[in-house]
């Protein structure tokens, strides 16, 4: 059994919406330019995997799903999701 995300007043109701909008935007960007997923020449599939995992976690958080198990709750935490999803951009540009 699962529950909808209730992050309380500290995080506010805007954070899941921001994650969903960000996931949609990054998903479209990755669809248009897949090379953004994997920096390097030849592209690194490890970075692409991390980016896709982060993008999936952003979608999970964005729709309001909150798992009961602590490990999965940590995996879909916004800080983890955003860090993984944006990691290829950070590696490529900085």
Describe, in plain words, how this protein is organized in 3D:
This protein is mostly helical and 94 residues long. It has one domain (12-93). The protein contains five helices and two strands. The protein has helices at residues 8-11, 14-32, 45-62, 70-75, 78-93, and strands spanning 3-4, 65-66. It has a two-stranded antiparallel ribbon. The protein is globular. The N and C termini lie far apart (42 Å).
Helix-strand layout with pairing:
Layout: E1 3-4, H1 8-11, H2 14-32, H3 45-62, E2 65-66, H4 70-75, H5 78-93
Antiparallel strand pairs: 1-2
Helix pairs in contact: 2-3, 3-5
Please indicate the percent range of residues in DSSP E strands (runs of 2 or more). under 5%
Q: Please give the largest β-sheet.
A: 2 strands, antiparallel
Please report the number of helical segments.
Answer: 5
Order of helices and strands: EHHHEHH
Q: What is this entry, summarized?
A:
The chain is mostly helical and 94 residues long. The protein contains 5 helices and 2 strands; from the N terminus they run E-H-H-H-E-H-H.
Descriptive labels:
single chain; 94 residues; mainly alpha; two-stranded antiparallel sheet; 5 helices; 2 strands; 4% strand; globular
């Amino acid at each position: 059994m699962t529950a909808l995300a209730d992050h309380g007043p500290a995080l506010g109701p805007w954070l899941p919406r921001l994650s969903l909008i960000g996931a949609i935007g990054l998903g479209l960007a990755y669809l248009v330019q897949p090379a953004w997923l994997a920096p390097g020449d030849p592209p690194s599939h490890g970075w692409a995997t991390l980016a896709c995992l982060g993008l999936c976690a952003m979608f999970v958080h964005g729709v309001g799903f909150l798992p009961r198990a602590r490990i999965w709750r940590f995996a879909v935490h916004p800080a983890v999701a955003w860090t993984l999803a944006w990691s290829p951009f950070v590696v490529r540009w900085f």
